[in-house]
Specification:
Strand content of chain A: 15-25%
Number of helices of chain A: 14
Number of strands of chain A: 11
Enzyme class (chains A, B): transferase
Number of domains of chain A: 2
Structural class of chain A: alpha/beta
InterPro entries (chains A, B): Thiolase (IPR002155), Thiolase-like (IPR016039), Thiolase_C_2 (IPR055140), Thiolase_CS (IPR020613), Thiolase_N (IPR020616)
Keywords (chains A, B): Lipid transport, Lipid-binding, Transferase, Transport
CATH class of the largest domain in chain A: Alpha Beta
GO biological process, one term (chains A, B): lipid transport
EC number (chains A, B): 2.3.1.176
Radius of gyration of chain A: 19 Å
Distance between the termini of chain A: 24 Å
Oligomer: homodimer
CATH architecture of the largest domain in chain A: 3-Layer(aba) Sandwich
CATH superfamily of the largest domain in chain A: Thiolase/Chalcone synthase
Mean pLDDT of chain A: 94
Order of helices and strands of chain A: HEHHEHEHHHHEEEHEHEHHEHHEE
Shape of chain A: globular
Strand order of the largest sheet of chain A: 7-11-10-8-9
Chain lengths: 376, 376
């Protein structure tokens, strides 16, 4: 992945090229070996009027003639690209497939991101921060979750971001700073919301047969699940049924459970999101997510680290790339290359992401489980 | 498919619902039977700021929880959605997959469509009409193709469009009218260029096993090929190597040749396009496309009908839907449901489409071959 943050002077093509080149080099794959490619961007057309971004990047790198598909699934865009690449390989369609995601999401101050929201909802303030503020209020009401518990997610993820050279933010924030930062939508303050970021990330998926011909340090994709929302109007606002289905399917496909996980990356677009995702993954009972973060169990050095990369809150969030940036973190952790944020002996990792907002459900939720079968 | 044309008062979601509902009904498939879906739109985000269109449509129709992917590949967007649906079924991933495409492409007069073109190229006038005018000039220079031959493509396709109740244009145009219509980019006049249109189209792809449990009047997809461009800077401008590769692969996959085709839909975004595609498909030798159209061989009643639907020139062109509108026409023809434009005994059909413009090559080219194995 590229560094995440603000890349004012660089084009999306340029960012994509850096990420794809890095993935090809890391995997020991030549441009001519790539048999298909999926490029994700949530903002290319929406904000920058750019289409065919996948081909623009691959043309520069000499990856030509192959099937290339540009995909969009809001914040789950990068994970969707990976899911399609994984499917091509898992079902024997191709041996080597590229997935990458690119976005330039830093926008002029005051821009309202209406993605997945109708104009009418936008006028009501029911855009992402408003929606997640309602969810947070409901969680507080139902389970006694406190503003301090919410804020602690941001503190932890900023602490982690300091150890990640590619993260957008590399300064610690105190509980007081998070709570005292400008109120965006009560109870969510500025530092309780992830930033919009520029950046790109990429991954190569290859078959076992291809791998056996190389000496590459690869990971096994034990599960790759993509679902769309259930859109149940009367559902419990403090969790997503679609995410539950997605997570349970992933555990089943991998033959693994929450107790097997060594490292987790979740979609902490807002502090409340991480708390709910921890509950849905089974790290604690529903409603206990606030106590979980407070206990320190999900901090570096805790029993199950969540978002060691800094998550969306500190690593940053170019929506088309975030799903693959999570994979970048899992790959770093499971291959023992995560430097000062390394989780000792991490062997199994899970990445969860969701995107869009339709009838207050996600348009897409994706879960990937990665395993390192080699013992270091 | 919906009627193509101008749908000022309808949303893209509404148009998508009409097309998907029609496809489900035609296929005898219930919303709960659909296992995955691909939604194509080239304009949703670019022009309308809308994302997650696939989920917006499917939420309305009660198709929930399944993997849904929004795809973009310029004018090849609809064909890309179909290709992915076909792949899911061909490789046994799913039994029933939905592909649909939606666009609202009618734009205020004077809007410059920059899709696939950098700002610099747009400033030079090297947008689609400019690019295809250069290609037409080169074809005229190399092969003696005449303005009248080019114009005849438009006359033929407008004649066909009159017989298609869903076509955007239903008036005949004379050779003189085409030649005398306003010059857009010499030698291409207004009536030599396809319109931008609003509309949607959809298709259901199912496995042989699924089909055996229904009494549905289905067609076999004998080939589905998607490639990206070769981007050769010094190539012959009068054809596309990427299209040649795509066509040849499709013939090989289907075990069929040009002599087996009964009906063809090609991407006649401009009159010159149809002439070149006819050459590349092997209907005539390179350079003889002008003589071919003049001979009447590709008109209704001719030896091999091209664009009986009216093509992009008369049926209209919502880029996300056009690839699937071609399939709608092949399905109508091969199932003997094409009314006054029916080609007697049509059994094998081919659809070709290409999209985008990168280094003067297409970003994507797709060819589908459909066969009716039942004799009426």
């Amino acid at each position: 992945m590229t560094a995440f943050g603000r890349h004012e002077t660089r084009t999306m093509t340029d960012l994509g090229c850096e990420a794809v080149t890095g993935a090809l080099e890391d995997a020991g794959v030549a441009p001519r070996d790539v048999q298909a490619a999926y490029c994700g961007s949530a903002m290319a057309a929406l904000v920058h009027g750019e289409t065919g971004l996948g081909q623009s990047v691959l043309m520069e790198l000499g990856v030509r003639g192959i099937p290339v598909v540009n995909v969009e699934n809001a914040c789950a865009t990068g994970a969707t690209a990976l899911h399609l690449a994984w499917r091509d390989v898992a079902w024997g369609i191709h041996d080597v497939v590229l997935a990458f995601g690119v976005d330039k999401a830093v926008m002029p101050k005051g821009t309202v991101l209406k993605a997945g929201t109708t104009q009418f909802e936008a006028q009501l303030g029911d855009i992402f921060p408003g929606t997640f503020a309602l969810i947070a209020r409901r969680h507080m009401e139902s389970y006694g979750t406190t503003p301090a518990q919410l804020a602690r997610v941001s503190v932890k993820n900023h602490d982690n971001g300091m150890l990640n050279p590619l993260a957008q933010f590399n300064k610690p924030v105190s509980l007081e700073t998070v709570l005292a930062s400008p109120m965006i939508a009560e109870p969510l303050t500025l530092l309780s919301c992830c930033p919009n970021s520029d950046g790109a990330a990429a991954a190569i998926v290859c078959s076992k047969e291809w791998l056996s011909r190389s000496d590459n340090d690869a990971l096994r994709i034990a599960a790759s699940v993509l679902v769309s929302g259930d859109y149940e109007p009367l559902r419990d606002m403090t969790c997503w049924d679609s995410e539950k289905r997605c997570v349970n399917q992933a555990y089943e496909d991998a033959g693994l459970g929450v107790e097997d996980l060594d490292v987790i990356e979740v979609h902490d677009a807002f502090t409340i999101s991480e708390i709910i995702h921890c509950e849905t993954l089974g790290l604690c009972a529903p409603g206990d997510g606030g106590a979980l973060i407070e206990s320190g169990a999900t901090s570096l050095g805790g029993s199950i680290v969540v978002n060691p990369s800094g998550g969306l809150l500190a690593r940053g969030h170019p929506p088309g790339a975030s799903g693959l940036a999570q994979i970048h973190e899992l790959a770093a952790q499971l291959r023992c290359m995560a430097g000062r944020r390394q989780i000792t002996g991490a062997r199994v990792g899970l990445a969860q992401i969701m995107g869009g907002n339709k009838a207050n459900d996600a348009q897409a939720c994706a879960v990937h489980i990665l395993v390192n079968d080699v013992t270091y």
